[in-house]
Design brief:
Elements: H1 11-27, H2 31-40, H3 48-51, H4 101-109, H5 128-141, H6 147-161, H7 164-175, E1 181-184, E2 200-204, E3 207-218, E4 225-232, E5 238-244, E6 260-265, E7 274-287, H8 293-329, E8 331-332, E9 335-336, H9 341-370, H10 375-401, H11 412-425, H12 429-439
Parallel strand pairs: 1-4, 2-4
Antiparallel strand pairs: 2-3, 3-7, 4-5, 5-7, 6-7, 8-9
Length: about 450
């Protein structure tokens, strides 16, 4: 168990929060997402900017209202959602980068990418408490760069491997922001599990060659380094491999002479980019020991879930802030709509959801930082609760804003899209509930 005092921000964490919030507010305004989507054409699950609708037909923001929710771009539990990442901030179809590379450089210069990397690998040696602060602010700003892919998944997977040679070779570049890394584990069934991994690894002299396909890979079209799960030889052992995407002859932005093909996917979330990855004899190096992938994936997944929960808490807080501000200024019948009980109750319910999101996400981060015995359960609880609460809060945000809330020009639908896609990104709430039951022995 984690002491209650460990859940409050320190002075240093508050300073970090302020720094990240200012940077993202100045460099990653939400209007930029709409501008990129306007340039790319209509977004999936909507009639796009020309139609003015972001998905909910008939003006309803609820799941039953013809929404852009599960039916509008989610592959559900089978895919980590097509919306788990989205049409990207780059051009649709993806010839260019799916994120702002200059902003990524600034994040790296501030040491944000290196926070959880040990000092011996040129990192800052901090913990998930510090990365939690960054994730929460990125969720508030709907930042769609590869931070979750790198810091939430790839770095924890490498550190969990215990492979000092691989860590010494790969982590310094990631920490410096020079290498964008991601974890490619999900396949056609959409599960964050190795039980049905079909990708194969065959030994070729001193190296390995991978053949197979991965789905819904975060930042997969932009990553310089892919950490890929694959079965080794004819055995049932699943291992982790590192693939340098630019190795042995770059043919184009997305297809390599080594047999690596990456396809940027369109989806519900306009900010976060995902890709499909096909491997045909791609050279790779083993990370950790043969058969270690299940344990490494589990370790990385719990770190990623804690980071995603923090993002969802930040996004929910942003929705609450915009709803309260609107309720104070929007006049109806000669008085602010926030003075009406029905609207006030909505805002109070949203506040409760935000506070519970913050509490569960912060506890998960603290538990992982301390290596608490309930850390895995805490990460799953945070993921399950924040996934549902963030979605509900975005629905109420649209309701509070009325007709304005589901127009293309308003920010509410951007959070609505993120909430639906993030709810499936690293597993569904049902997956998390099942995992909790297994962890506590039910």
């Amino acid at each position: 168990m984690v002491a209650q005092s460990a859940l409050a921000d320190t002075d240093e964490q508050r300073a970090l929060r302020d720094t990240v919030r200012r940077l993202l507010r100045d460099r990653a305004p939400l209007a930029g997402l709409r501008e990129a989507a306007d340039a790319a054409g209509p977004a999936p699950g909507s009639t796009g900017p020309a139609g003015g609708s972001t998905g909910p037909a008939g003006g309803s923001a609820g799941p039953a209202g013809g929404s852009a929710g599960p039916a509008g771009g989610s592959a559900g539990s089978a895919g980590g959602s097509a919306g788990s990442a989205g049409g990207s901030a780059g051009p649709a179809g993806g010839a260019g980068p799916g994120f702002d590379q200059e902003l990524w450089r600034q994040l790296a210069e501030l040491g944000l990418v290196a926070l959880a990397v040990p000092e011996k690998y040129d990192g800052l040696g901090q913990t998930t408490r510090e990365t939690h602060v960054v994730f929460e602010e990125m969720g508030r700003a709907l930042y769609g760069g590869p931070y979750l892919a790198c810091v939430g998944l790839a770095i924890p997977a490498l550190l969990a491997s215990g492979d000092d040679a691989a860590c010494a070779e790969l982590l310094p570049g990631i920490a410096a922001g020079e290498t964008v890394a991601t974890l490619a584990a999900v396949e056609a069934d959409g599960r964050w599990s190795t039980s049905h991994t079909a990708t194969r690894a065959e030994r070729d002299g001193e190296q390995w060659r991978l053949t197979g396909a991965k789905a819904f890979v975060l930042a997969g079209a932009d990553a310089d380094l892919l950490l890929v799960t694959a079965r080794t030889g004819d055995s049932e052992d699943v291992s982790l491999f590192a693939v340098a995407t630019g190795a042995e002859g770059l043919c184009s932005a997305h297809t390599y002479a080594t047999g690596l093909t990456r396809t940027r996917l369109e989806s519900l979330d306009l900010a976060r980019a995902v890709a499909g990855v096909e491997l045909d004899g791609v050279p790779a190096r083993l990370v950790g020991s043969v058969g270690a992938a299940p344990a490494l994936l589990a370790a990385a997944l719990h770190e990623g879930l804690a980071g995603l929960a923090a993002e969802q808490a930040g996004g929910a807080a942003a929705c609450l802030d915009m709803s309260v501000a609107y309720a104070k200024t929007r006049q109806q019948f000669g008085r602010p709509i926030g003075s009406f009980q029905s609207v006030a109750h909505k805002c109070v319910d949203m506040l409760h959801g935000v506070e519970f999101c913050r509490a569960s996400a912060r506890y998960a981060a603290a538990a992982l930082a301390e290596g608490a015995t309930d850390a895995r359960e805490a990460a799953r609880v945070a993921a399950a609760y924040c996934g549902e609460a963030f979605r509900a809060i975005t629905v109420e945000t649209v309701h509070v804003h009325g007709g304005t809330g589901f127009t293309w020009e308003h920010d509410a639908h951007l959070y609505y899209r993120r909430a639906w896609s993030a709810r499936h990104l690293l597993g569904t709430p049902t997956d998390h509930h099942t995992a909790i039951a297994d962890l506590v022995g039910l």
